[in-house]
Amino acid sequence: MTTIVVGYVPKAEGRAALRRAAEEAKLRDAKLVVVNSHRGGRSFDSDEAAASDAALTEVREQLDSTGVPYEVRQLVRGLDPAEDLVAVAEQVHAEFIVIGLRRRSPVGKLILGSNAQRVLLDAPCPVLAVKAEDGED
Amino acid sequence: MTTIVVGYVPKAEGRAALRRAAEEAKLRDAKLVVVNSHRGGRSFDSDEAAASDAALTEVREQLDSTGVPYEVRQLVRGLDPAEDLVAVAEQVHAEFIVIGLRRRSPVGKLILGSNAQRVLLDAPCPVLAVKAEDGED
User: Fold this and answer.
1) Any CB–CB contact under 8 A between A101 and chain B?
2) ipTM
3) pTM for the complete prediction?
């Protein structure tokens, strides 16, 4: 069974990535590895931990209805999200990685964040970049 | 029938993108629109035109064996490749776009080219970024 790795954050772009990753997994009978990455250290306080638990509940709700087999890896090991994603993709020999991009806002120009750039460049496999739908928060 | 749009240049990253796009099209019974973009003007001389024809022959050879329905659009209308790709994707309501990235060389750091960045940011649909295999020219 092939594996699709998806980077998840509890924001519109993370949900868009998760939705698309689940569709792709279903299409090719793949399983999903959902990576929720935190640097940790002093910035990972109890508020963040609670928000993170809520996010994982949201992931489960979004995925349980799809029937796609999945696992969630919550990583707190001092790495940037891009490093965590690439490392997991290498470890599980991912078919591809799905990441979410922030959509251009009405007032500001969208630029490609450093994490997205690093995943695109460092990934050992293709990367599917998905934008959040208009109107999603 | 859904449509996958792929940016093609006669280089390793273009061939990698085309190969992956054909696999994805087969998987979901989609058709392919292969976009080969040239700015035109004085830079599009007869040498380039000949190279471009050779490239299209190569595309046909690579795709005819797959059984995937496809069309090749060779665009010479003064636009950057990113603009052409995004415009075609909008026009055909593409399921997604496939682009090739150059792999990091042993001596130089890979950076994300401006065309790749623009496609990722401006595309009306997800973008699958594929790297050339090691050892491909």
Assistant:
1) yes
2) 0.88
3) 0.89
